[in-house]
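Board notes (copied after class):
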Amino acid sequence: MRELTRMLTSYAEASALECVALQTAMVIPALLLLKPHPKSKAKEHSAHLNSRLKHWINGDINDLMDEGGVIQQRLDRQHKERSCEHTARIFAKLMM
């Protein structure tokens, strides 16, 4: 929250970061709050968040982007494995 607040304050006060502050404020949650895997627990979330914050503060944005890409690829693979029948069955259960 401090980092997000810092970015929004930078924008509001017309600081040197003003030109990227809003974009950064939109990207921070997406990069830092990704679940490492679908069944991860709160303890893992905290550990990954601390690690990602360290990368962010050190300016290792490429490392964060790479990690996010790996997680997205994993999610895409899991999503593709589901068949249309499976999706229809889940939809029907939710509608009931």
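Comment from the instructor: The mean pLDDT is 82. The first helix runs from residue 2 to 12.
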